[in-house]
Write a structure and sequence with these properties.
The chain is α/β, with parallel strands linked by helices and 266 residues long. It has helices at residues 13-30, 87-95, 103-121, 131-134, 149-162, 175-183, 192-200, and strands at residues 38-40, 49-57, 69-75, 77-86, 140-141, 169-173, 204-206, 213-217, 223-227, 232-238, 242-255, 261-265. The protein is built from seven helices and twelve strands. A hairpin with a 3-residue loop joins strand 10 and strand 11.
Length: 266
C-alpha cells in the first residue's frame, strides 16, 4: 500500500486501526453489489485492465504479408472519495476517547459504496456497462405498493427461467424499496421479506444507489467484478487543523451474460 502514503500522515498506529475499523463497519452493509456478483481479486494497485479474451484486427500492417490482432481489455476505474478529519479528534482518540467525530469518514465510505453499486447495476458512462442497462429483458414494473413486489419478482424469475438461466436468484433493492419490504407484513402476518426469499431461493440485498430493483442469477460466471486495489484509506496532506484523507479503490465490471438479470422499475 505504498501509494497510499499512510506513513506520511500524522496519525498513530492506533489511529489508523480506528479509521480502518470504522471504514469497514460503514462499508460492509452498503456494498450491496459485491454480495450478488462474482468478485475477482484484489489483484493489487498495478493491475490495470481486465482481459476479455477478444481481439480486433488492425487495418494496416508495417510489413507485407504480416497481419495482427489487438487484444481487447477493459481498463480499471480508480474511484476515490476525499474527506478530512480534525487533528484534535484524532489526538483525543489516542488518549482513549470512544466518541471521536468520524462523520466525514462515514460520509465518504457511503459515497464510494453507492458509486460502486451504481456502476455495477446502472453503469458508469465511459467506464462500465451496468447489469440493468445490459439486460436483454424488458424491464418489469415493481410498482409503488410493496404488496405488489412478489408478483413482480416472480415474473422476473419466470423470465430468467424461460431464458434457461438457473438459480438461485438474488434481489438488489434501492433504499426506499428495501425499507418498504422490511416494514411490510402481508395478510396473516407473514413477512414480505420471507415471501420474496422463498420466490428467489436466495438473498435480498440493501444496495444504496440502485433505482428500483434488479433480479439476477447467482449461479456464477455471469457478472464479474474485477478488483485491483480493494477499498483502503490513503493520505493526501495535512495542516495544523486537519488531516486530508481519502478512500480509494480500482475495479472493472463486466456483464458476461446479459440475459441473466431483469431490472424492475419503481
Amino acid at each position: 500500500m505504498n501509494h497510499l502514503l499512510r506513513s506520511h500522515a500524522p496519525i498513530s498506529d492506533a489511529g489508523w486501526e480506528l479509521l480502518d475499523q470504522e471504514a469497514r463497519q460503514r462499508l460492509a452493509p452498503a456494498l450491496g453489489a459485491r454480495k450478488l456478483v462474482d468478485f475477482s481479486g484484489p489483484h493489487g494497485w498495478e493491475h490495470s485492465a481486465t482481459n476479455l479474451g477478444r481481439t480486433t484486427p488492425f487495418e494496416s500492417s508495417p510489413a507485407h504479408g504480416v497481419s495482427a490482432l489487438k487484444r481487447t481489455v477493459l481498463p480499471l476505474i480508480e474511484a476515490r472519495a476525499d474527506f478530512a478529519l480534525p487533528r484534535g479528534e484524532l489526538r483525543d482518540a489516542d488518549r482513549g476517547a470512544d466518541d471521536a467525530d468520524l462523520a466525514e469518514l462515514d460520509r465518504a465510505a457511503h459515497q464510494i459504496a453507492m458509486a460502486e453499486n451504481i456502476a455495477v447495476f446502472h453503469g458508469w458512462a465511459g467506464a462500465t456497462v451496468g447489469i440493468a442497462e445490459a439486460s436483454t429483458h424488458d424491464a418489469g414494473k415493481l410498482g409503488d405498493a410493496p404488496d405488489a413486489y412478489p408478483r413482480a419478482v416472480a415474473g422476473a424469475v419466470e423470465q430468467l427461467l424461460c431464458s434457461g438461466i438457473t438459480g438461485p436468484y438474488g434481489l438488489a433493492l434501492g433504499r426506499e424499496q428495501y425499507r418498504k419490504v422490511v416494514e411490510t407484513a402481508e395478510h396473516g402476518g407473514h413477512l414480505l421479506l420471507d415471501h420474496l426469499r422463498r420466490i428467489l431461493d436466495g438473498p435480498i440485498v440493501w444496495a444504496p444507489g440502485v433505482r428500483g430493483a434488479v433480479v439476477l442469477s447467482l449461479r456464477g460466471g455471469d457478472f464479474i467484478f474485477d478488483c485491483g486495489q480493494d477499498l483502503a484509506i490513503g493520505y493526501d496532506s495535512h495542516d495544523p487543523e486537519l488531516v486530508r484523507l481519502y478512500i480509494e479503490e480500482s475495479f472493472s465490471f463486466h456483464v458476461a451474460t446479459p440475459e441473466a438479470a431483469v431490472a424492475l422499475e419503481s
